[in-house]
Structure formats: C-alpha cells, structure tokens
C-alpha cells in the first residue's frame, strides 16, 4: 500500500480571500492519484499563519509521514504552506525527507522552473553536506542522551513517595496508606475503601478530606507499587500547555509515545506482588458480576417471589437519585411497573432492593453448601425449625370427603337425566346439576389453596447429587464465572421468597425437593 500525507493550511486573511482548504485538498488528492497512491491522510490547519512554527496539524502531518512506513509522499500546494521563512522551510523539508522514503511534492510549485525553486534546490545541496557533519554530532548527542536517560527529568508525583533532587524515597505515612488500601482491596470494593479512609481521617493525595473511588482504583491498578518500576517520557505532552488558549474542540490531547521511547525508572516497591494479585483477583470477580448485569442478565432472575403479595420480583437497572450512577435492583412486579391498571388492584408496598446485596447473600449461602457439608445440615435444620409440619391435613381430609360425596351425587343425577323423558323433571335435574358443579368447583379451589399453602410451609432439601456433581465438575466457588454461578444457583434453588420487615430483609430459600416426611 502506498500512502500520501496531504497538508493544507489557510491563514485568516487567506480565508477571506477565498483561498480554501477544500481546493488545496482537492488538488492534493488529484496529485496523489497521479502518483498512484491508494490512501491519503489529510491534515488541515485553518486560520493559522505560516509564521507560527509549532502548528499542531503540521507537526502531526510530519509525525504521521515519519511513523507510517507506507507513506511515500508528503503533498502540499506550495512551500508557503510549510513556512514563509526559508530556514524553517528547509528544516521541515529536511524532517519530511530525512529517511529518503518520503518525497515532498508541491501541487502548485515547480522546483526546477522558478528562481525560488532553483534556490531551494541549491540550498538543499548545501544542507546535505552540512548533514554529514550533523550526523556525527547526533551520534554523540545520542550517547549523552542515553547517559541522561535514567535520571529523573521530572518527578511524576506518585503517591507514597518523597522526591528530592533526583532521589526518590518512601513517604512513610503515604506508603502505609498505600499498603492499607491494598490490604482492604483484596476483599472489598473501592467505595468501602473510600469510606474507611475517610473514617480514619486520612486525606487524599490532593489533600481533600474525601477520597474518590477513581483515586483508590488508580492506586490499586498502579503496577509501580509492586514492581518498583515506573516510566517517564511515556506521554508526549507537546503543545498541551497551550490548551488554555484553544477552543475546546481544538485542544490537544497528550499522546502515548512509542514504547521504546519510554524511560524506565526505579522506585522503592511498597507492596508485594501477592498483595497486587489478590486485589486483581477480587476486582476480576467484581467486574464479571458488573458485566453480567450490563448484559441484562441477573444472577437470580426467575427465582425471586414477593413475600408480601406473592408476585415475582425481577431485575431492574436504574439511575441513582442524582443521576450519576446506574444501579441495579430487584423489585416486585406489583411495585414496579405495578399491578395492571383499571382492576382496582393495589400497588405492592415493598421497596426496591439493591441487587448486589441479595445476590451476595444468596451466593454466600450456596457457596457454603458447596464448600461445607455442615452448612447443608444447618440449612436442613433451619428448614425443619422454620417450616412446621402442616396443620391443614384434617381440613383437607374433610374437603376431600365432601368432594367425593358430591361427585357421587353428580354421577347419580347424570344417570337419572339419561333415563328421564319428562321435560319438567329434566329441567329440575339440570338445575340441580348446575348447582352441584358449582359446589365442586368451589371445593376444588379450596383444595388448591390448601395445597399451595402446604407447599409453602414444607421444608425443602438440597439435592445432594447436584452438590456432588458441582464439586467434581466445576471450579472452586471463588473462581466461578457468572455463567457457572448462574447454573449452580438455578440447579439448587427453585425459589427465594423475599420478606421485607422494616429495614430487615429476609430471604427464604427453597431448594429442589420437598423434604421427605420423617419416620
Ligand atoms: Zn409484592
């Protein structure tokens, strides 16, 4: 692939004289076509005088032509686009053509035919001579630069250290805070860490009383703290110091330099590699959980039921009150969106529950079963204590008796109806039959209600085969992915009834099988 960089520029007064970027670009592209170029990269500088040397688009154009191996031409309309000052013109030309790969091409200027062109060429020749001398200087300069490389040219202000005239030492107090943050980071999130720092009255790196989660996160992700290595000259900040004079859309961003230009520096490590890894493991789990919710999947979907109104709960993602963060919740369907309209049904008075809270509680329970048989027995015992054997059996027996009796009556009536020919008697029999069917329906409804009440109070048992399978085939609970957790939870749990009592939340976990009656 052959590429060309096209550089266009108009100053403010040229703009008013109709000297447009568009026409320069068009001629540039035509020229590129002529030269058999497949790709062009266009850099535009509007309203900037040729006297300004450090022009962002020009710098970018030159850098692009040097960095991208497939660039063969640097095209602009005339030398004035680069600079009106001959010295700078030569300097830019030299930079563009120095590798002898890129050729500088003008669309509206002929090097050979004009006096300027001839002058340009003769000076280029003189420069070539001059360049030979320069190469020697550059080599020496390079050596000096290397020698200087591993000295601090500036201090990047890393929290936890003191810097004094090129010497970096541990800042005792800040270093202790860093270690503490890592210790906490292996088992809690950034928000909790911020809370603890605040509670301890430790001020942030910027001297504020409160810590932001980003600050804590940066500290936990900064590899320098355990490797003892950091880099300077990692970013090209060229021109960014002038940003305050630029409109927002023109502001320059600092750019990452090529990796081989970074200079590695040593600092005293503050934490161990193990401490760093422990934090990474925790955040990996947290991230997976977060991702799963972004994808619209909730760990407990389909399992939650309202202890208040009996409807299902579902996952819900929404903004916090000042709309700065998205949070995820579970909520009763009759609370949000609420009961179907126009049927006089009441909205469920339960409130939204943060999803991580419920998920963590459920997952911890399930994790316990997988890791420890005693947790399974504990669950079974709790089930037996909580779910007293049903007291409905007598009532149920009576209902069944009545049902059977009426059922026999119905059979007899149907037989009589089949033999009866008198229309008056038939009418009476039919009336009677209707009443009997209604009564049967009623008893059936009562029985169904009893059955469902019964199943709600029945103790349930954990599927021991499923537990063995999980132990043998899945990774350690701490290492499980969202998918695996989801599978495990749905394999073992059939329903979780949520009871909100004041500020308290009760989760009644029902497992696969009803517990067999004792004895
Ligand atoms: Zn409800």
Q: Can you put this structure into words, describing what you see?
A:
The chain is an alpha/beta fold. It has 17 helices and 18 strands. A hairpin with a 6-residue loop joins strand 12 (313-319) and strand 13. It starts with a strand and ends in a 5-residue tail after the last strand. Mean pLDDT is 80; it is low at 290-294. The chain binds zinc ion.
**What's the β-strand tally?**
18
User: What structural category do the secondary elements indicate?
Assistant: alpha/beta
Portion in helices? 40-55%
Count of domains? 4
Distance between the termini: 83 Å
| Poorly predicted residue ranges | 290-294
Put simply, the count of helices is 17
User: Biggest sheet: strands side by side, in what order?
Assistant: 2-1-3-4
Estimate the mean pLDDT confidence: 80
């Amino acid at each position: 692939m052959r590429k060309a960089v096209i550089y266009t520029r108009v100053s403010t007064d040229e703009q008013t004289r109709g000297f447009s970027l568009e026409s320069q670009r068009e001629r540039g592209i035509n020229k590129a076509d002529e030269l058999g170029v497949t790709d062009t990269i266009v850099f535009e500088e509007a309203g900037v005088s040729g006297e300004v040397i450090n022009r962002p688009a020009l710098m970018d154009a030159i850098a692009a032509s040097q960095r991208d191996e497939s660039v063969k031409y640097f095209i602009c309309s005339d030398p004035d686009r680069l600079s009106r000052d001959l010295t700078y013109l030569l300097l830019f030309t030299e930079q563009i053509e120095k590798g002898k790969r890129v050729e500088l091409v003008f669309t509206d200027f002929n090097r050979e035919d004009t006096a300027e062109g001839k002058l340009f060429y003769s000076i280029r020749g003189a420069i070539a001579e001059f360049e030979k001398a320069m190469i020697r200087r550059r080599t020496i300069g390079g050596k000096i630069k290397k020698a200087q490389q591993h000295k601090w040219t500036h201090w990047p202000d890393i929290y936890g250290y003191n810097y004094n005239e090129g010497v970096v030492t541990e800042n005792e107090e800040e270093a202790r805070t860093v270690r503490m943050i890592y210790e906490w980071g292996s088992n809690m999130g950034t928000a909790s860490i911020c809370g603890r720092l605040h509670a301890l009255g430790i001020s942030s790196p910027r001297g504020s009383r409160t810590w932001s989660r980003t600050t804590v996160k940066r500290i936990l992700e900064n590899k320098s703290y355990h490797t003892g290595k950091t880099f300077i000259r990692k970013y090209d900040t060229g021109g960014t110091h002038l940003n305050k004079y630029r409109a927002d859309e023109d502001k320059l961003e600092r750019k990452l330099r090529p990796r081989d230009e970074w200079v590695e520096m040593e600092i005293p490590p503050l934490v161990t590699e193990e401490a760093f890894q422990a934090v990474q493991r925790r955040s990996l789990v947290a991230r997976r959980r977060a991702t799963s919710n972004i994808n619209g999947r909730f760990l407990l979907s389909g399992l939650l039921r309202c202890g208040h109104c009996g409807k299902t709960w579902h996952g819900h993602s929404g903004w916090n009150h000042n709309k700065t963060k998205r949070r995820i919740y579970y909520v009763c369907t009759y609370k949000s969106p609420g009961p179907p309209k126009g049927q006089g049904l009441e909205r469920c008075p339960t409130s939204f529950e943060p999803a991580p809270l419920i998920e963590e509680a459920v997952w911890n329970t399930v994790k316990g079963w997988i890791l420890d048989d005693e947790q399974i027995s504990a669950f079974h015992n709790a089930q037996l204590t909580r779910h007293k054997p049903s007291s409905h059996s007598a009532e149920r027996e009576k209902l069944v008796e009545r049902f059977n009796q009426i059922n026999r009556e119905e059979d007899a009536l149907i037989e009589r109806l089949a033999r009866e020919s008198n229309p008056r008697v038939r009418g009476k029999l039919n009336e009677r039959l209707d009443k009997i069917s209604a009564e049967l329906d009623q008893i059936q409804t009562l029985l169904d209600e009893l059955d469902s009440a019964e199943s709600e109070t029945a103790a349930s048992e954990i599927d021991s085969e499923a537990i063995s399978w999980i132990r043998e085939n899945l990774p350690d609970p701490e290492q499980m992915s969202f998918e695996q957790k989801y599978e495990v939870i749905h394999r073992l749990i059939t329903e979780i009834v949520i009871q909100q009592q004041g500020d308290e939340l009760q989760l009644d976990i029902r497992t696969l099988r009803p517990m067999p009656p004792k004895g």
